[in-house]
Amino acid sequence: MLTEVNEVPAKITKTNADYPQTPYDLIREMFIALGVIGVLVLLCAAIFSTPDVPALTAKQVATQAPQLFIQTALDDLSGQDAISTYGPPYNTNGQAQTLGPISPEAWAGVQIPIMSDEVEVLAPLRRYAVVNPSITPTLNAWSSASSKQQTAWVNNVEKYLDKAKLVNGSLVLPQTKLDYGPVPQILNAYLRLARSGILEDTIDGSHSPMPAVNRTKSLLLLQDQPAGQYAQQLNMSGGQWGIIKETGNYPGAVWLWFYTMLYQIPPYSNSSSADLLVVSTILVVTLILVFLPFIPGLRAIPHALKVYRLIWRNYYQYERLHRRNNT
């Protein structure tokens, strides 16, 4: 009597030989890739490289464009500069950026108190008076005057600034019936201090034997017209390259191109809270990308687009041929 025996087939283990093999020279491909990338880098550097010029300094502005530097000092003395009306984190004179109830500037408050007339002009001259005492009476005359009188002096100088001359490096205003007060003497002392190359150091003014590390205050001195005109000459203003390029041998923050792009388009370009709006947009987009695998609908987009089939097209072509041959 024969008994039927059901035999269990052995498990089939596939090896590399069961799959199609293609010779591939990895070392050769690596050198080819390096060569192509190297040529592209050199071409892009030749076409899009930034000018290798030194950073803008007060000495450079005071020497090459003294009237622009004097106007900057007058704006600081009269409170007409951009920082005096900026608001937090420098002062409370400007309106903090808001996005509905969201206002990080208002929440943080004034963290770097700056009154431009004192920080950028008067305090450096007081430090300079230690080695040049002749400026002390001029500073005392300014400090003892009322704010109304100070404003009148500055306005009188600004009225005739375009008619002023530079004689032996000093500002000479035309003789008029207007009272200039001590402003011309302050401006000339400020010019000499800037041309000496130590204005930035006197602005930052370290209170210890160690040199100042925080350069925020001196960087804000030229951030309005001088820095803007300098950037325009180098084709590096916000509307051209902005923060993604910088002078010198080092690349700028090229990964921030998305920020720079947003500043150029509405509603960001027209908003008084552009900084907050841009940062909020980047934050939302980043969160969406981080949590994309967990968001229903959005996580199915790659599968719906079938991009993976384009990337792995050789595999799917092989599968189709394999199924066709087996049918």
Automatic annotation (TrEMBL):
Spans through the membrane: 30-49, 248-265, 277-301
Keywords of the record: Membrane, Transmembrane, Transmembrane helix
Name this protein carries in UniProt: Cytochrome B6
